[in-house]
Amino acid sequence: MLAIIGGSGLTQLANLEVTRRQVVRTPYGEPSGALTFGTIRKAEVIFLARHGYGHSIPPHEVNYRANIWALDSQRARDVVSVASVGGIRADLGPGTLIVPDQIIDYTYDRKGTFYSTTDHSVTHIDFTFPYCERMRQRLLRAAAAAGEEVVAGGTYAATQGPRLETAAEINRLERDGADIVGMTGMPEAALAREIGLCYAAIAVVVNYAAGRGASASGVRLDDILAVSQKAMARVRNVLDYLVTLDGD
Ligand code: HPA
């Protein structure tokens, strides 16, 4: 089954016909909310709002382990993360949709693994390619079928937040090779890999990153909502097609 983790701007899926909601208890504490089960174009999906249904959980306080564990426990196999990001590269302005293929993790103090020393021997996972390629390709095919332009590939920098970055930090991220910046991509992707879920992301650029483009003199937060609302309608369109494509 496909699970969709909605980020800022996507706390509800208008195209989802809800059948039930289920509270899932996990060994890692509470997920961001009850899982919403339903159908999109008759295909079964599970939806979870990453920041809670009232958008009350900031990026550094999301219980990523509980969220991923809960989805896995309900037999999700594939996971699409929808995430809002800032655009670093000049050609990645507000409104751009992008399916990243790499991650650089700058977060800290987040619980980022299911492997603790108490119940596992030391375990490493391969994370050379952090997103599941099968899911990435499925997203790209869905976008093409939906007639929505998406950028196929890019490096996502995961920052700690909740504050936005300084202009110098954005310059450093760019030197490091990052194209977009967000606050929730990690450890979510790594946890999905650890537990064996096929996970990929579709990112929505909602602002130019600090010091870039229209954010040269500061990020105007007031502008983000309108951009996000318009772009999320396009993401919903992609998801509509995604569910009807088979998983392989
Ligand atoms: N930086 C970090 N996270 C973000 C941004 C940003 O500019 N925009 C949306 N999420």
Can you put this structure into words, describing what you see?
With 248 residues, the chain is of the alpha/beta class. It has 5 helices and 11 strands, in the order ββββαβββαββαβαβα. Helix 2 packs across helix 5 (222-242). The mean pLDDT is 94. Bound molecules: hypoxanthine (HPA). Hypoxanthine binds at residues 84-86, 159, 164-165, 181-183, 206-207, 209, 219.
Largest sheet: 11 strands, mixed
Count helical runs.
Answer: 5
Helix content percent band: 25-40%
- List cofactors, ions and other ligands: hypoxanthine
Contiguous low-pLDDT stretches (5 residues minimum) are none
* CATH third-level topology: Rossmann fold
Name the beta content range: 15-25%
Q: Give the overall shape.
A: globular
Structural class, by secondary structure, is alpha/beta
N-to-C terminal Cα separation, in Å? 12 Å
CATH architecture: 3-Layer(aba) Sandwich
Within CATH, the superfamily carries the name: Nucleoside phosphorylase domain
